[in-house]
Amino acid sequence: MKRIKAIYPGSFDPPTNGHLDLIERGSKIFDELVVAILRNPEKNPLFSLADRRKMLEAMTSGFDNVSVDTFDGLTVDYALRVEARAILRGIRAISDYEYELQMALMNRKLQPGLETVFMMPAEKYSYLSSRLVREVAQLGGSIECLVPDLVEQRVREKIDVAHKFANREQSAGKTPSEGKSKFRKKKL
Ligand code: PNS
Predict the structure, then answer these.
(1) Which residues are part of the catalytic machinery?
(2) What's the pLDDT tens digit per position in 22-68?
(3) C-alpha dihedral (20, 24, 29, 35), degrees to nearest 10
(4) Ligand 1 atom nearest to 38, measured from its CA
(5) Global confidence as pTM
(6) What contacts 159, CB < 8 A, 6 or more positions away?
């Protein structure tokens, strides 16, 4: 019998409980699942690729058939390279649908043999996104229950460092906007 390998591509900046929920669901229907982190030089991520990889590896260590990898270029090219037959994507709400449909159809145009499979995360994660996690954490809100404990800790560390850096620049007489902190510059 043919084994079905799928990739789950994304930015995962940071990985959330919603991602983990989808990974768990994907691991049950595919023989092999590769969580594939996009190396996107245009974005200004909170976490480096290596950090995201480490967090995802720790989060998925309990799944025998899940691995973590990084890629650049087209998702379909990466899928072909690793001999995957499907792309797994999550749909949380109708608002995700248009973008996801567009992407799935473009990927099908580029590589007709590759299927996109959509899964819904648990309802309790339907409002959850990496962008909101970053925003809430940066503004001092709690991200408990939104991300695994290890990710929460890493996000806190990142933000503390960014705050310290911004405070140091302020006490050196610079306005926050003059500072070089990535945290300060980041668009929320
Ligand atoms: O977690 P994200 O940011 O929603 O993931 C988006 C991702 C990485 C799946 C998408 O941007 C992507 O596939 N990028 C790789 C470049 C590519 O293949 N572009 C054409 C997609 S139709």
Answers:
(1) 19, 43, 92, 130
(2) 999 999 999 999 999 999 877 789 999 999 999 999 999 999 999 99
(3) 40
(4) 8
(5) 0.89
(6) 137, 138, 183
